Prior knowledge:
Helix content: 25-40%
Shape: globular
CATH superfamily of the largest domain: Fructose-1,6-Bisphosphatase, subunit A, domain 1
Strand content: 15-25%
CATH topology of the largest domain: Fructose-1,6-Bisphosphatase, Chain A, domain 1
Bound molecules: 6-O-phosphono-alpha-D-fructofuranose
Oligomer: single chain
Amino acid sequence: xxxxxxxxxxxxxxxxxxxxxxxxxxxxxxxxxxxxxxxxxxxxxxxxxxxxxxxxxxxxxxxxxxxxxxxxxxxxxxxxxxxxxxxxxxxxxxxxxxxxxxxxxxxxxxxxxxxxxxxxxxxxxxxxxxxxxxxxxxxxxxxxxxxxxxxxxxxxxxxxxxxxxxxxxxxxxxxxxxxxxxxxxxxxxxxxxxxxxxxxxxxxxxxxxxxxxxxxxxxxxxxxxxxxxxxxxxxxxxxxxxxxxxxxxxxxxxxxxxxxxxxxxxxxxxxxxxxxxxxxxxxxxxxxxxxxxxxxxxxxxxxxxxxxxxxxxxxxxxxxxxxxxxxxxxxxxx
Length: 334
Ligand code: P6P
């Protein structure tokens, strides 16, 4: 390694992809780089919070005598404050905000829309379980200016980019702009996301299934049979699948993306529409998994073909290795 060569940063990769499009304005690249600044700030706060939870337990104030914000509020505010200023967005939609987040009049508006779950699985932070940020970027139809809720009700196939960050033993950013999937590990010494997992492809068939079996009694018969299949001898390996479920979507998804396997959060009698949200959970992860050779359905339809009926629409989710998703989807519709 040449001295000072820290490897390929996410900025370098994004700029390299931009050069593939001579007519590109560079706005998308700048938007993406600004987003990584917010993600690095969240990583710092999430990792610090683990420590502060120990040090700041007395009375809920941290060692600097600051009011301890809830982490997901912090993450939400960090993304909003960083991104609203850029001039590249016409608005944002967040899991934490009921309505579209408007760009203040003081700032210019742009042609992109950002959807995000600022800190998914944050209830796990006190147990030091990996949690994550999920995001998707759309290009607004019809130029710049304000955008309303209808502008965000786009199917996932219209995404121009998507990704997630997993805050775990290390902080890792996984992204796709529609040309494959790349993973970047945050080097805290340099403060840059460095390419560590080039061109991620998920195995066409896995050995892992991830579902909350505690909901078994709430599933319909077809769902029970589809999940029971994983406990029987798989025809290829002559052995059952391994059950792995963390209860943090990004962590479960990320493991299965790398190792192969299937994550499913089916509809049940408690959540007849499913639990996970289409706009800022299912669609961005479906975009990633399809660019990695996998697939994602709601148990019947391709996730990225679903027309959202609202910012916080919930869907059942079957996502991961193509053969596993296809088999489960077929069993749910058999
Ligand atoms: P359950 C976390 O609350 C979350 O939104 C996802 O990160 C996770 O996959 C899911 O809910 C877990 O839900 O019902 O199994 O606890």
